Amino acid sequence: MRTVVPLAVAAWAVLEIWLMTVVAGATNGFVVLLSILAGFVLGAAAVKRAGRSAWRNLAASVQQPGAEQGPEPAPAGGGRTGLHMLGGILLIIPGFLSDAVGLLLIFPPTRKVVGALADRGAARALRHRPEPEPGSLGDLYQQAREAEEQARIHRPDGKVIPGEVVDRDHH
Description:
Blueprint: H1 4-26, H2 29-62, H3 81-92, H4 96-106, H5 108-127, H6 137-150, E1 152-154, E2 160-162
Helix pairs in contact: 1-2, 2-3, 2-4, 3-4
């Protein structure tokens, strides 16, 4: 990953510059400048809107403390505010390829499809992840989760009561 990611970013930048020169050659430099400025303005507006939507969703979830919560209602704006914000950021970055991907993430139907694909890919990656190496941070995290599970007391009615086992013989 340490070599692939920088190479991918460099290839993306070279492709963006090449696309800008192609568009500038077909039209003129002023059209390229206007498209970069339009992408910046549209991206800033998208980031602002996604931020407001995320803030509203957070405020709505905080205003219902202690209430028995059923299935969560769909967030305002169709959800996926993270993808909406990523789309805005990609529009702010100069370039036609990043603008195309950003527009796909801002448009709600395609954002929903991309989000579903990302969820499916993340679930698959979590299912097929390798066992952590002994002594690694992942191993420590897994040990902590197992210890937490062992510390819970399971009642016959299905309720789980968190607890801690104290061994008084070793004190």
